[in-house]
Design a protein that fits this description.
The protein has a 6-stranded antiparallel β-sheet with strand order 6-7-8-9-3-10, with helices on both faces. The protein has a 3-stranded antiparallel β-sheet with strand order 11-12-13. A hairpin with a 6-residue loop joins strand 6 and strand 7 (128-133). The chain has helices spanning 37-49, 102-116, 158-170, 201-210, 237-242; strands at residues 3-4, 10-11, 52-59, 67-75, 89-94, 120-121, 128-133, 138-145, 148-154, 173-178, 181-182, 185-190, 195-199. It has one domain (23-71, 89-214): Alpha-Beta Plaits, CATH 3.30.70. By secondary structure, it is of the alpha+beta class. The radius of gyration is 25 Å and the shape is globular. Helix content is 23%, strand content 28%.
Amino acid sequence: MFNIKPDGCYRSHLVAKGFSQVKGIDFDELFSPVVRYETARLLLAVAALEDLDIQSVDVKTAYLYGDLDEEIYMEQPEGFKLPGKENKVWQLCKALYGLKQAGLFWWCTMTKSMLALGFKRCKSNAGVYYHHDKKTKVLVIAIVYVDDVCFIGTKDSLLLNELKQKFMARWECRDLGETTEFLGMHISCDRKNRKIFIDQCEYLEKVLAHFNIVTNPTHTPLPSEFSFKPNKKQCDPKFCQKYQ
């Protein structure tokens, strides 16, 4: 069953049979570093306090950019087999969805790209990159979680926009503009008071809908004041007799 994109087109992916890969032959390491949620929330809070600009981009089909180190072959997909060469196989030069190491190789390729743009990787958190211009003393921070990238820098900074555009020139991206959602968190900023508000209401609704859990909001039957004290008439008689 195909997913339907916002423009009405059907979404499909060519996926490799990663379950058939053998450790030590087809792959070695699998772990792909990502930014920690705590770090992301901390940097968003700093951005609010310092009145920094927050811009986001989404990398399209990120896993397909990863350069493979191993020699991996796959069967020709159904419907695309070459006439007279049906027994031939493909050698993969780039990562593909379904490969166990696809996430790791995308991170390695993306990290090389960030270093080429002048960023440095934070040693304590592999999903955080920073670029410091010594002349202007402008600092730009990039938070990366797989294919979601959040750029934080001085408001209306030329360096922030320049680095963002250079990143988008390397990969096919969707420019999401000012960040309103990141890692399933809805983000709203109060620039006047330098505050940031984060909630996951929309994410929670998606989870409930996925598991077919229908919620019927209703008012609490009891007063909200802390001074409320139930009397015996409002309690279950058996409960009252038990604890008298």
